[in-house]
Amino acid sequence: MTDKTFEFTRRTFLDRVLMASAGGVMATATPWAAIAARAESAGAGKVRLGVIGTGDRGRALIQNIAKTRNCTVAAICDNYAPHLAKARQWVAAGTAEFSDHRKMLEARGLDAVVIATPLHRHAQHTFDAMDAGLHVWCEKAMARTIADCGAMVERARTCGKVLQIGHQRMFHPTYLNAWRRVKAGEIGTVTQIRASWHRNNAWRRPVPADSDDRRINWRLYRESSAGLMTELATHQLQVGNWFLDAVPTRVIGSGSICFWKDGREVYDHVALIYEYAGGRKLIYTSLLNNARYGCEEQIQGSKGTIEPELGRIYQEVPPRSLALQRMQADVKRGHKRTIPIGGATWFPELPVTTPGESLGWGEYDETMLQFEGFGEAVRSGKPLPGLLQQAYNASVASLLGEQAMDRGEAVAWPTSLVTV
Amino acid sequence: MGTRVELYRFGDGAADALALAQRAIEQVDDALTIHRPSAATALNEALRRGETGVIDDPLLLDALIRIDDARAMTERLFDPTVDMRRATVRWERLRFDRSAATLACDAPAALDFGGFGKGYALDRAVTALRDAGVACALLSAGESSMAVIGEHPLGGAWSFAVPDPRDADRTLVEVALIDEALSISSTLGLGLAAPERAAMVRPGRSAAVVAPRSAVVVDASGAVAEMLSTALIVADDEAAQRLQDGVRRMLFDLAPAAPTRIFA
């Protein structure tokens, strides 16, 4: 892609975000998107970011930061040298490198840090960065425990720093447009969301000779991750809370190591029901040995369904009755004949296979946009409104789901959460 | 209502006649639905708790009076009562006080207006259209409940072909209507193997009616046609014969060996 082409598609993407987030209700309900889309080019005054963790995800983030108008990677840090070496190609020559994040923080010259380390390290890295006077952008989920999630929120408040968590769907024009259409009542009353993230792979990375499994495959071990819940479900639980405009009242679930019996400690099969006020539900499944239904959220209302990952909206109204329409046409042309009607025939209630209508607007890199939003937040010293609340609730929901599965009983939404 | 309602008007009448008819149908749905909070669900909640339900919705009260009035006509075979424990609670066990607009029961019970609601809604819509000066119209609720006002726009009766539920390509019977309503009920769908959406239960018994039956009833009232077509489905052969009173047209039964088989 040439720079010119990129600028064009970028402009198109931002226009779509602005269109999706325009209007009184959207401006109030999703202000973060418009703020991010209006970010201005900063020239030499770009927000200087230090990236802690340059594994696969960290390097992907670095590439997205490079596309932004207002952020630049000023330092990279990883305690595993091969990761650092791989990241070098994506940053400017001479970018400072560190193997210890504390050294990077002490070196100064940064406005904020980006944390893309294993989940159980997020909280400590956040504390250290904020204690060093820096703002923080952290990968989701927030932390390994609900207590640490709350502590991160508290630390941001006491330090007066921005804490932003990576929930890029909140910046995606298709999701923003879907949310707008739900709020406009186009699919009626939403009573259920079915969400799934199904893959067919071991989720296991090869372990180099100079490392070990717990370090490379930290997602598979309880100490460092809640597995599918914190690494995948968090995104969709955020979507569920967002579209249902609430947090769950309680969660029940079942988890198992059902297929990949390879010594991992986290579930490879999870199925949960999150209950919301008024009898509404989010039904969630994630597994690692069948990819047929992939990643999707089905937002189900009394008048229709939205599937944002597919970018489709489906109406509940059945196909129009051709017989009665034909009768009307017959009358107009003066032709009278017997009208065939449907009678009491009962049709099996099979899934609707109509293609639906496009929600519009395909993929672009919303991850880039969330960094532009973060850049604006760092410049102003004010967090993008609403984001941290969504992230905190999503992380709590994912960890609560883990508890429900571990205990084999319903777990109520905690009453002792911190106020965001 | 969970049903596709279609209204077609022809000729004279007020410009907003269809809107008035639609509103009439929505009002019935709002009062009788049990799929969202309504006057009916509030009444059901009271019955479930063993309390006397106060009926403060005039449409719900009117519906209950019509159902109560139709008990003898349907040989008590149309029964909106849903037994919360066993299929032993029937309408007669409820204490319906029309003047006080209350309903009570000494056992947990609930009401389900399926088998009545669509026809009743069409009746209300027909009245709204007539009041708006419409003299020619066709109304459909899911194509299993139809009503017509006046003659066909081109003259003569409206003629409808009712499909054979065993074979949708075949016509079971043709029915001609003028100022009448039609209700079709059936226990089978597209072929005997088609899954049933809901089972019909004979009042007072817990077993579902499994015989392959279909009933078509024509009456001036959609609600009456609806109740009778439901009653015919759950009636045994003798009761079905008694129900054919000559006042209205009833076309009934698909059971191959049924003595009351009407369809030729």
Explain what the structure shows.
- The complex is a heterodimer of chains A (420) and B (264).
- Chain A is α/β, with parallel strands linked by helices and 420 residues long.
- Chain A folds into two domains: 3-170 and 366-388, Rossmann fold (3-Layer(aba) Sandwich); 172-318 and 349-361 and 395-412, 2-Layer Sandwich (Dihydrodipicolinate Reductase, domain 2).
- Chain A is 38% helix and 19% strand.
- Chain A has a nine-stranded mixed beta sheet, with helices on one face. In chain A, strands 3-2-1-4-5-6 form a six-stranded parallel beta sheet, sandwiched between helices.
- In chain A, helix 3 (31-37) packs across helix 13 (366-380).
- The longest helix of chain A has 21 residues, at 387-407.
- The two termini of chain A are 41 Å apart.
- In chain B, the strands form four sheets. Chain B has a six-stranded antiparallel beta sheet, with helices on one face. In chain B, strands 2-5-4 form a three-stranded antiparallel beta sheet. A two-stranded antiparallel ribbon of chain B has the order 3-6.
- Chain B has a domain at 134-252: T-fold, CATH 3.10.520.
- In chain B, helix 1 runs antiparallel to helix 4 and helix 4 (117-131) runs antiparallel to helix 5 (222-234).
- Chain B is of the alpha+beta class and 264 residues long.
- Chains A and B meet through helix 12 and strand 14 of A and strand 9, strand 10 and strand 11 of B.
- Strand 14 (339-340) of chain A pairs parallel with strand 9 of chain B, so a sheet runs across the interface.
Describe the structure in brief.
Helices cover 38% and strands 19% of the residues of chain A. By secondary structure, chain A is of the alpha/beta class.
Pick out its properties.
heterodimer, A: alpha/beta, Rossmann fold, Dihydrodipicolinate Reductase, domain 2, 2 domains, 9-stranded mixed sheet, 14 helices, 16 strands, B: T-fold, globular
